[in-house]
């Protein structure tokens, strides 16, 4: 699948943070059912960014960017 440019999608902060976080987790798990994860200070790292986006539809990538999930250090990341 093609990767889309995160800057072409605006995050929707009107969606509650808990909803953006949990829906993002669930969506990523459809592409990686047993992901590695870690938390550090104010950021939650989840799964392998490249491995999941290689298989992810453009619509699902847009949805994650809308939820304000981003790539940090090779992982999907969500700032708390």
Q: What does this entry look like structurally?
A:
The protein has one domain. The protein has three helices and four strands. The chain has helices at 17-29, 49-55, 58-66; strands at 37-40, 43-48, 70-72, 75-79. A four-stranded antiparallel sheet has the order 1-2-4-3. Strand 1 and strand 2 (43-48) form a beta hairpin. Helix 1 (17-29) runs antiparallel to helix 3 (58-66). The longest helix has 13 residues, at 17-29. The mean pLDDT is 94.
Which sequence of SSEs, written as H and E, runs from N to C?
HEEHHEE
Q: Radius of gyration over alpha carbons? A: 11 Å
Please give the count of helices: 3
Residues in β-strands, percent: 15-25%
Structural topology:
Blueprint: H1 17-29, E1 37-40, E2 43-48, H2 49-55, H3 58-66, E3 70-72, E4 75-79
Antiparallel strand pairs: 1-2, 2-4, 3-4
Helix pairs in contact: 1-3
Provide key terms for this protein.
single chain; 3 helices; alpha+beta; 80 residues
Concise description?
The protein has 80 residues and is of the alpha+beta class. The chain is built from three helices and four strands; from the N terminus they run H-E-E-H-H-E-E.
């Amino acid at each position: 699948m093609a990767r889309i440019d995160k800057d072409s999608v605006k995050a929707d902060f009107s969606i509650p943070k808990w909803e953006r976080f949990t829906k993002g987790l669930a969506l990523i798990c459809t592409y990686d059912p047993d992901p590695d994860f870690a938390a550090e200070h104010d950021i939650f790292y989840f799964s392998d960014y490249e491995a999941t986006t290689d298989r992810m539809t453009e619509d699902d990538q847009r949805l994650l960017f809308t939820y304000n999930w981003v790539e940090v250090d090779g992982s999907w990341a969500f700032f708390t």
